[in-house]
Structures are given as structure tokens and as C-alpha cells.
Amino acid sequence: MLEPSQEDLPGIHSVPVVERFYPAGTLIMEEGQVATRSLVMVTAGWAISYKSMQNGQRVVVDFPLRGDLINHGSPAGRAYRSVLAQTDLVTFEINIERQGLLSGYSPFLARSIMSLVARNYGIAMEHLANVARRRPLERAAYLLLEIAYRLERAETLKHNRFQFPFTQSDLADALGLTAIHTNRVLRDLREAELIVVRNGVVELVDKPGLIDMTFFDPAYLSYGG
Amino acid sequence: MLEPSQEDLPGIHSVPVVERFYPAGTLIMEEGQVATRSLVMVTAGWAISYKSMQNGQRVVVDFPLRGDLINHGSPAGRAYRSVLAQTDLVTFEINIERQGLLSGYSPFLARSIMSLVARNYGIAMEHLANVARRRPLERAAYLLLEIAYRLERAETLKHNRFQFPFTQSDLADALGLTAIHTNRVLRDLREAELIVVRNGVVELVDKPGLIDMTFFDPAYLSYGG
DNA sequence: CGGGCCTTTGATTACCCTCAATTTTCGTGG
DNA sequence: CCACGAAAATTGAGGGTAATCAAAGGCCCG
Predict the structure, then answer these.
(1) Is the full-model pTM beyond 0.90?
(2) Position with higher pLDDT, A48 vs A94
(3) What is the mean pLDDT of chain A?
(4) In what order do the strands lie in the sheet containing B201-204?
(5) For residue B215, which residues of chain A lie inside 8 Å, CB to CB?
(6) Are strands A195-198 and A201-204 parallel, antiparallel or unpaired?
(7) Within a 13 Å sphere around the CA of B142, how many CA atoms are in the beta-carbon half?
(8) Rg (CA), chain B
(9) Helix count (H) and strand count (E) of chain B?
(10) How far is the CA of B88 from the C1' of C7 (A)?
């Protein structure tokens, strides 16, 4: 990501950053609520970001990882989705007034935030494309492959295997499928020797094959600078 | 939207705003290209914003309307989608360096932009939910109802009827359906006396019925302030 | 007046959802 | 450590729905 220049330093150091811990199960943010915190960045643990619909359905918008902001997109108004701590979660939070952040307080922070927001937007659009225009097998493969790449960036991926403490029902709500069909899709991926998902662990068995199948291009996961 | 305060005025007046015209068919922005303009806001005409996928599919991300920014989400990096002028299009563009805009140049503009970006994020997330978790009939109804509400805000909706200069194929790519099935869905909506789409004109025949059917709540279309 | 794109309809297929039941896993308390 | 119950994962059967394949009609533009 960006490095602060010499002139940025005073602004940065005067920003009140606090570390916070949320136990597993905490609803960190709720859809429709006015945003009270300025900025929240995940540093450790797993979260799930979702929308609840009036028709009883749920849509998982994202699984925010280490380094991701979880309150972008609602800087001035109401949260457009809920965020739940799936495991114990650690965050850094900046609690000064947000518009100050973006206008004069610290140009470095303003730039960084805009980069993070832009990247999240790109990720969200790929997610939309994934749900709208890929078949379930490729769709599931794409989602897990993207998470693996993001974990790689966050330096928490080893041997193409990672913890993934979510249920198949959570995955289904991220894929726009039923839980039952998601189960069958995961079986197909396992039998095709592409991905094994078992007991909360995801293993990318054939990463090149997955990339071929999904035309995965990680360019959108980089930070704009 | 927001009103500038007295202290905002000098900053605003020093920002170089230009009006631009794009003839129908102009590709205003292309996916993957580095953003060269700072900010582009639609003031008249129709555009379509889409992603092209490697599997040959296309996903329509949004139909940007009067008052919408069409380069949010890529302020520092590369555009995550293409934008095509569907009709002749008029924009206002701000061509100063973007990070200047957001850090000290004009606090009023910074706030306004953040509000617009936040709103667009909310719209995008509703779109995701729509594609992921609504059935085609409700999905099509929701999309057209949303556009009607947004046009209402832009003060270009009359008698629940509006021009919509796109093909059923465009609509299909926004709904995640085939063009053929989209045609059947539109027939169903017509026969249910809910919406009539014909010759590039959309008429909401039974707006209350549509709102009931889709649980439509326009809260996410407001500006955060 | 063509020609091409768009719209519309029909027939068939493939896929995903629904309903139902069993097995496995996991957390909790005995 | 084991027993129990609840939640999650898994499998089967069947039906509904959207995709696919095919073709005809309408509309606009040159």
C-alpha cells in the first residue's frame, strides 16, 4: 500500500487510533443504523457482512479480511449492511469525525481510505458479476479463489489452505444458491479435485485448474495507490 | 442534497468545472483503464455501466442517471467497469487532481462526493441482493421501480412513465437472465398489469402493487448528508 | 425496399429448488 | 470421557423454472 511522506506524519500521529476486540458473535454494525464510528479496519479474525431482505432471504455481501475496512460506503449516512464477528475479532478504529479525515486532517489517510474504498468497490462488482453471470460451480470456485488471493496479500495463506469458519449456509447466501445445492457444488468441486472444503478448512487442490476454469485475474485486488 | 456553507464558497468557486457533451455511442470510460478525469456527473441523457467477462458474458452494473457520478470507486486506480453513452449525454466534469479534491481543496465538495459515493454503494448492494435473492419477476419489477424512484428524485419522472432507451438484452444483463427469459418476464409483468415496457417506454401501471410485491423501500436512495 | 437488430413465441432440455430423511459434527453437561 | 442434543452436512427423489434451440414477425435505418 501507500507509504506516508514526511509531511504526512504530523497529521497521522495526531489521529486517535484505538484497537478494539470483539468476541465471536458480536454484531459490529447493523443495517440501517447511523454510522457512529469513523473507520474500522479488521486486523485479525473473521467477519461476515450481509443484508437481510424483507422476503426472508439473506445476501452475504463480503467476508471482510485482515486489512479491509468494514464501514466504507456509509461514511456519512446509514450502514447498508450488517457486519457480524464470526470469530473473535480485532480491529483498529479511528474515531475522529470522518469528514475531517477526508478534508485536510491527513492527506495521507484520505488517500489511503479512498484506495481502500475503491478496492472494495471493485471486489463488490466482481461479486455481482460472479453471482449474476457464472454457473454455480465456477461461482463457488471463484469466491474461494478470491478469498485465497486476498489472504495471500494479507500474508495469512499457507500451502493453499486456509481456515474458513463459516457454514455452507453462509456460503450459499454469498453465492445466491440454496444451502443444499451449495453442498452438491462443493462435492462436485471435491470430486473434480479442484477444492476441498471440510470442517471449516478450505484447500485449493488445483489452483491452476481453478484459475483456468474461472478466468481469474487478481488485478482488481491491488490497491490503486 | 447538501448546501454549501459560507466558508465553503471560495473553495468551490476555484474548482474548474466544465460541461461536456458525448454523442450517443461514446465509450466514456473503459474497464481497466487508468482514470484520467477526476469526477464526472451526469446531467442529461442515458448511460449504461457494465463489465465484460472473460466467459463472454456481460453484467450491467447500473444505469447512471442525472445527478449520478460515473467514476466513483476508481478514484485512484483503474476503472472497474465501462460506461457507454446510450443517448447523447451531458456531463459536468471536475478536472483537478482528485486527491486535492478530497483533502483540503473544498470540504464541501469532499463531503458531497463522499455522500454520492456512499449512495452509489448502497444502490450497488441492493442490485446485488436483487440478482442474488429475488425471483426474476420481482427482480425485474424491483429494478424498474428503483429507476423510477431515482428519476423522481432527479425530477424527470411524470405520470409513472419514463423513457428507457435500452434493449431487452441490456435489461437481461442487468438482471442476470437471458434476453429470451427477460422477454417472458416482461410479458408476465404486463399481463399482471404491473408494468408495461414497450418501444423504449416504461410505464408503472400499478405502483402500489409493485411496492408490495418487491417490499420496495426507497430509503437507500437518499443522500447521507 | 432490403437488411439487420430486436422482439416474440414454441418446444425441449438441463439445472436448481423443494421436500424429506439420514449421517456427521460439535458444543454442552453429566 | 462419554452422553446427549442441536446444528450442520449429506444424499435421494421429484417438480418447477430458466436456459437452450429454433423460427417467425416487427421495427428502424440506410
Answers:
(1) yes
(2) A48
(3) 89
(4) B161-163, B201-204, B195-198
(5) 53-55
(6) antiparallel
(7) 26
(8) 18
(9) 7, 10
(10) 24
Distance CA A162, CA A164 (A): 6
Q: Where are the beta strands (DSSP E) in A9-79?
A: 17-22, 27-29, 39-44, 47-52, 58-62
- DSSP, res A69: B
Cα–Cα dist A33/A23, whole Å:
21
Q: What is the pLDDT of residues B180-192, one digit of tens each?
A: 999 999 999 999 9
Nearest residue to A118 via CA among B106, B80, B108, B225: B80
pLDDT > 90? residue B101: no
- Residue A170, CA: closest nucleotide via C1'? D8
The reply to whether residue A107 touches residue B110, judged by beta carbons under 8 angstroms, is: no
Asked if the model's pLDDT at residue A99 lies above 80, the reply is no
Do residues A42 and A70 lie in contact, with contact meaning Cβ atoms separated by under 8 Å? yes
At residue B95 the predicted structure's pLDDT band, cuts being 50, 70 and 90, is: confident
DSSP states of B1-63 as a string? -----GGGHHHHHTS-EEEEEE-TT-EEE-TTSBP-SSEEEEEES-EEEEEE-TTS-EEEEE-
User: 3-state DSSP call for residue B80?
Assistant: coil
Distances (CA, A) of B151 to A82, A104, B117, B143, B166: 28, 34, 18, 12, 16
The reply to whether the CB atom of residue A135 sits less than 7 A from any atom in nucleic acid chain C is yes
Return the number of other C-beta atoms located less than 10 Å from residue A185's C-beta: 24
Helix (H) or strand (E) holding A161, with range, is strand A161-163
* Closest to A79 measured CA to CA, from A117, A121, A49: A49
Residue type, B63: F
- The answer to whether B97 and B89 have CB atoms below 8 angstroms apart is no
Q: How far apart are CA B192 and CA B138, in angstroms?
A: 12
DSSP at A35? P
Contact residues, A window 161-180, toward B, CB-based 8 Å cutoff = 175-176
Least confident of A57-61, B112-116, B163-167, B215-219: B112-116
Evaluate whether A66 touches A154 at the Cβ level (below 8 Å): yes
Kindly indicate the confidence band of residue A72, based on its pLDDT and cuts at 50, 70 and 90: low
